[in-house]
Amino acid sequence: MSTLWLWASDACLLIGSFLLLTGALGFLRFPDFYARIHACGVTETLATGFVLLGLLLRSDDAMPQVKLVLILLFVLFSSPTASHALAKAAWNAGVRPRDNSGKRRVSLPHTDP
Amino acid sequence: MRYSLAMAGFLAIFWLANSGHYSGLLLGLGALSVLVVSWISHRMDVVDHESIPLHLLFKLPRYLLWLVGQIFLSNLDLVRRVWRPGTPIDPVVARVPLPQDSDVCRVVYANSINLTPGTLTIDMEQDSLLIHTLSREGMDALQEGEMARRVTALEQ
Asked: What is the ipTM of this complex?
């Protein structure tokens, strides 16, 4: 394990942590339910990717590396499905998006009630 | 038969990659579990072109590379929006056409939209998707349809 790989791993972990922080901040700052799902999208795609890549560069055995790649694959398969399920449930329950001021309703396609 | 063999192959590779123990007894048990799982899936009649999309195998890597690039770009855009004062977002909800015929490609398309932060699939209908985006540009890009074209190209 050379120092170069450790530096690369540190950089990946730092970027991943920054992206996780960004996701959390977006979750707090965005005005409504749907916009907050977008903020979580940052944590579940690129942040997860960078954190797992950082861990991958840190391990020097093939077995944990294979498992980290599998974790990334499963997260990338399941997280969009989960956010779709949340959004659809909210939409069917009558939650409608709001704009940045948090008050005015966003215009919807006219076929919807 | 082709799909059953492919699935047994994938299962064997998966077992070998995850086990890390290669003594005779454990390899035998691994082979046995691959056989049992293959037999059960065959009896359940779930092994077909939909659960084992072999026809996508060689086209998928190129699409995935492009998708990773898109994920990077949309993440950067969202990071900028989060940290800027006043969180400059302008949500749009609209319908986007869903040109794919096969279920696999429809799911690939809807999941790709969800994987790029800033666009979210709310609902799926026969020939359209209900999409929420954080910005007008995000919706324009989807309606322009490059992602849809690339997913449709997987089908052919």
From this structure: 0.83
